[in-house]
Amino acid sequence: MQLKIKHNLTLKQISRMVAAVFFILTIFFLSFPPAYNSFYRQTLILFNLQISFIIYDYISTAVGMISFGIALLLIIFFHKTGKDLQKTASFVSIDLALKGFIIQASIALSLHRYRLITSPPVTHGIGWLVFDMTVWTLLGATVIIFFASLILAIHHKVSRSFGLIVSVLLLIGHIINLIFGAWVFQSSKYTTLILATTSIMSIYYLWKAR
Fold first, then answer.
1. Quick one: pLDDT band at residue 165, thresholds 50, 70, 90?
2. Which residue(s) pair with 124 in the sheet?
3. Does residue 150 lie in a domain region?
4. Is the peptide bond between 121 and the residue preceding it cis, with omega within 30 degrees of 0?
5. Residue 123, strand partner residues
6. What is the per-residue pLDDT for 36?
7. What average pLDDT does range 115-129 have in this prediction?
8. 188: Cα separation from own chain's centroid
9. Which of 16, 60, 162, 166 has the smallest set of CB atoms within 10 Å of its CB?
10. Does any domain span residue 6?
11. 18 is in which domain, residue-wise?
12. Are the CB atoms for 111 and 126 separated by under 8 Å?
C-alpha cells in the first residue's frame, strides 16, 4: 500500500511553526536574575565551554543577520499581502515572536549596548542590565509578546486589538532605543530600524483590520 503525504501547508500552519521555533529558541536563552541563568549558560557550564570574544562577535553577527533578514522578508510579505486580513495576522504573529526571541537572546549573549557620553564616546556591553528589575521587566514583556503572538492565530477582533497594542509598545521601545542609543532589541541600530519598520507595518495593517 502506498502512502500519500500532503505537503500543502497553510500560511496559518507555517506561521505557527515559525513562531514555535522562535519560542523554543527563546526558552533556550531565557534569563533570570540575579545570575542571569539560562539553558544557554547552563549548557556552557555543563560542557565546560569557553567562548572567546571573537566567537561572541560571530554569534552577535549571526543573530543580527537572521533578525535583519527575517524582518526584511516580513516587510516584503506585508507589502504584498497587506489586504488579506488572515495573512496579515499571521505575519504579525511571526514579527512578535521574532522580537521576543531577540530580547532574550540579546540578554543571554550580552549583545546589548549603551553609549557613555565621554570624549570620545565609549560603547559598553550589558550596561543597564545590572539592574535586576530591568531583566524582570523584559522577561514580563517577552511573555506578553508571545501571548499576543499566540492569540493572533485565533483571528478575532480582540486578539488583533491586543496585537495592535503590543506592536505600538514595541514601536515606542524601538524609537527610544534609536534616540538614546541603548539598543534593547539588537546591538545594531540598522537592525533596530528595520524592526521598527515591521512594527509600523503591523500597526498599520492591524488598525485597518479593526
1. very high
2. 114
3. yes
4. no
5. 115
6. 60
7. 43
8. 14
9. 162
10. no
11. 11-208
12. no
Q: 91: Cβ–Cβ under 8 A, 6 or more apart, which residues?
A: 15, 74, 77, 78, 81, 202
Q: Which residue has the cell 510579505?
A: 77
Q: Please list, in sequence order, all residues whose beta carbon lies within 8 angstroms of the beta carbon of residue 161, skipping any fewer than 6 positions away.
A: 206, 210
Side-chain half-sphere exposure of 143, counting CA atoms within 13 A: 6
CA dihedral 132, 134, 136, 138 (to 10 degrees): -150
Query: Does 109 score more than 80 pLDDT?
Result: no
Place of cell 553609549: 115
C-alpha cell of 194?
Answer: 528595520
Residue 1: inside a domain: no
Q: Where are the alpha helices (DSSP H) in the chain?
A: 11-29, 39-46, 53-81, 85-108, 132-151, 157-180, 189-208
Q: Is residue 113 part of a domain?
A: yes
* Calpha distance 135→103 (Å, rounded): 10
